[in-house]
Amino acid sequence: MKALVSIICSLSILQAKTHPSPSDPQATEEVKILLKRLHDQSEKGIMIGHQDATAYGVGWKSGTGKSDIKEVCGDYPAVYGWDLGDIHLNQNLDGVSFSEMKRLIREADARGGINTISMHLDHPISGRNAWDNTKVVGKLLPGGTANEKFLTTLDLVASFLADLKREDGSFIPIILRPFHEHSEQWPWWGLSHCEDGEFIALWRMTVNYFRLTKQLHHILYAISPQDVVDEKDYMEGYPGDDYVDIFGLDYYKIWKHRDVHKMGEALSMVAKLAHSHGKISALTETGIDKVPISNWWTERLLPALNHDKWSRKTAWALLWRNKSRGHHFGPYHGHQSAPDFTKFYDSELTIFEGQTGMPKVRAAQEKLIKNQHCLSNVAKVVQQGKVIYHGAVNSTFPGDRPITDDTLFPIWSMTKPITSVAAMILHERGLFGLDDPVSKVIPQLSQLKVHNQKGVVEPIKREVTFRDLLRHTSGVYGYDGSFHEEGTWKEIIELKSLSEMIDLLVKQPLKHHPGERYTYGMSTAILGRAIEIISEQDFASFLEKEIFHPLGMEETSFHLNKIDREQRFQPLFVKEKENFRRGTKAEDELYYQPGSALALGGEGLISNLRDYGRFCQMLVDRGRTRDGNKIISEETLSIMLSDQMGETPGFGGKRSPNKLGLGFYVLENPELGGNGAPKGIYGWGGYHTTHFWIDPVNELYAIFLTRLYPTPSESLQIFRTAVYESLGP
Predict the structure, then answer these.
(1) Confidence check: pLDDT of 389 > 90
(2) pLDDT averaged over every residue in the chain
(3) Do domains 4-356 and 409-727 have the same CATH topology?
(4) Per-residue pLDDT for 15 more than 70?
(5) Taking the complete model, does pTM exceed 0.70, yes or no?
(6) How far apart are CA 349 and CA 591, in angstroms?
(7) Among the residues of 621-659, which ranges form H helices?
(8) Which CATH architecture has domain 4-356?
(9) Of 335, 468, 572, 729, which has the fewest beta carbons less than 10 angstroms from its beta carbon?
(10) CA–CA distance, 43 with 38 (Å, rounded to integer)
(11) Which of 428, 423, 469, 463 is CA-nearest to residue 445?
């Protein structure tokens, strides 16, 4: 739907010869990057933002990973608005705690979102809210009777801004809108309540205080009068190019068709002014309360934004907040304008968070749905610890559930890499050798039998080793029988513990002698039982202690409670004869029963995009957490990524691009099927069409999650191709 975005992107980069410079001579590198991004993005389309987007919405509060915008179109807004009114209290004037706001700002930044902050500061003398417009500005300036008191308020603002840092310690770049809508009557800082020059002096004093006294250099400053339509009115109170980076406009007068032209002209005027001053232009606030016009997005806002070549240079347009059904400026799931907002989203002009970096990935997700390779799906690409793509595309198929960051997926065989890392933690502690027989810890395995080539059961030639379990050469299968037939697997899923699983599996003859060939089966589940015995704790507890807790994987588990099953667990779809149908309860196969000790290390985990991303980031960081603590050593990880098969048959064959390590495939020959990826990427996939890979060369990981059986190979091929086409050479 947005196929032209990449073309527009390429042309704009060629045309852009210069970029604006920050007004702060000491601006951080992050601020310079953001300003360049705003400039480049304004040549491609207009980013759509939302005030308090992830803090609350219609019928929900923060902590849920939700966004009303995302619920409607499947993607987060590209720009986030926040406010520091009531900065002297624990929460702001709209009920958002400042500690929560900091967390949400960091999360938005990590996803690639842009954060803007306004300041509805209380009247500095009366203590009443910002709408007390009693004259006061002259008293706040240097030498004024309330100057020191006002500076204590700015201290609180500065303290908040100074705490906005990324995990690497660098400052998150912020767009600050101090004293917004100064053209209006309502605020105490309004021009009509200031003597000549007072507003300019207030603005300059504030900026200088943040820059010079507080040494805050991670801020871009946006000025934003409201509803002005000519240059003279816009420039009244302008503090000068050394104090402003963005020419903003708050505009709410767009109810009728005749308002569209007027708003478009206003946006065009602001963009021309900004260009003449070497600045960026933006629609810093907009919307209509309750959105009572069902096609308002495509018949009012979109044509105003698309008015002419100048209005289209608007960097972003931010919708005001969604407080409740009685007071909201954006759509929400079920709102009458939601279908029209989806069309607004589909416009070539609008850009949302997931489209700011990799439009081809978004297009690939849409293509997978269109070509019936999956239904609702979510993808994430993170490079050097920075989210460069994060977006869900939701289908309209009956019974499908929109995906959010809180959606839980059965990750099936993507459990195997986690279990493999867990085992290698014990290996590097010297608690077992790779070529030790597993019967040292699970004695029953010494009695295994095997079907020989004539079908006769005979003793094994050698015992199963830990290396066999990690590379699937044990000969253990166990996947015969499923939801539609009798067999070992159907018996296993009814068990209550891993020890019971071992008792069942040792009764089954192996498919071949250990080490003879690759057979994909329940080897990794047996490895989980070995970890239990070696570590002297149940397998789930070991994972929690050694991997999940250190990485902050709070949602990854072998169990699923009733509420999560009903509200967060993504439903399974089965494709039969080119048609989708909802999977049955039996086709879910695993029960994920709370309290069960059947923690299948090869198949049994439930996780979400956020959690599995943390595991992937640890692998990108060569076995360490983001704060530098070791999960597994770099040397051990190198062993896991080395070729473990040699001439042993069964994995891929001569035409396979991959070799097999311990717990991962590793791309050895990109020319045979790398889909644009470089040699050395590694990863795995899951039974219900989930994939991930790690790219050491580009320092990135990529995850794709949906829920479909059987798994189409196209889901990985199309997704990976789109990622590397987006990265470029």
Answers:
(1) no
(2) 93
(3) no
(4) no
(5) no
(6) 45
(7) 634-640
(8) Alpha-Beta Barrel (3.20)
(9) 729
(10) 9
(11) 463
